[in-house]
Description:
Layout: E1 2-8, E2 11-18, E3 29-34, E4 42-49, E5 54-56, E6 64-68, H1 72-77, E7 87-91, E8 96-97, E9 102-105, E10 112-114, E11 116-122, E12 138-145, E13 148-149, H2 150-156, H3 160-164, E14 169-176, E15 185-190, E16 193-199, H4 207-217, E17 225-227, E18 235-237, E19 242-247, E20 251-259
Bound molecules: magnesium ion (MG).
Amino acid sequence: MRLARIAHPEGVAFAAIVGEADNPDGPLFAAEIAEHPFGKPEFTSRKWPLADVRLLAPILPSKIICIGKNYADHAREMGSEPPAQPVIFMKPSTAVIGPNGAIRRPVDSERVDYEGELAVVIGQPCRDVAAADADKVILGYTIANDVTARDQQKADGQWTRAKGYDTFCPLGPWIETSLDPTDLDIRTELDGEVKQDSNTAFLLHTIPELIEYVSKVMTLLPGDVILTGTPAGVGPMVAGQKVAVTVSGIGTLENTVQDRA
Ligand code: MG
């Protein structure tokens, strides 16, 4: 199922993106979910053509946990060896924006980079999850852009400022709940030019390993998001550009870039 959050003509809701059973190649609709998408979602009777709603960030997480250097080629382009243990850091919930939202470059950074990533969305409260049980706590998968003020990341020695600006965590376009995440193509394009082109098979620490590692540290809540790391090819974005991250089996997360006033 494709779970989305939408702005519809009368408000905001969770929805499933569905086709018509008797017209599989026809238009898509957003079918409204009552309350929240966790557990077994209940549907209201309302639905709208997808063209008549606006997709929002598919979830508003209580926290966003990010994994650094989780592809060997990216660790090397950053001048370090692949780490033996996962490197974890966080972004504030206020960094989240949705599909087609504007990434705003802060005035005090000279270099703001894209980092296309597969993101895991947690489906239930959990702690100390064994890797073998990780599937049970996953709601689904979406796409993220771990936007980074690269100059500030290098200058500060830790990453809170560089990774934490408002708009630095685009998420979307929706959460795919039925997906094997172990062999997905991941590609980032800047103004249509391919900049990152890899596959989740190259993740150094797998998603079950990451959930075990992170849930030893902190309780994970429904809707929390884990960004699984970016492959090689990171680079800067400037105002006026469009950045698109595509993960096979999910879709494309596209955002614009602006300078913050
Ligand atoms: Mg990253």
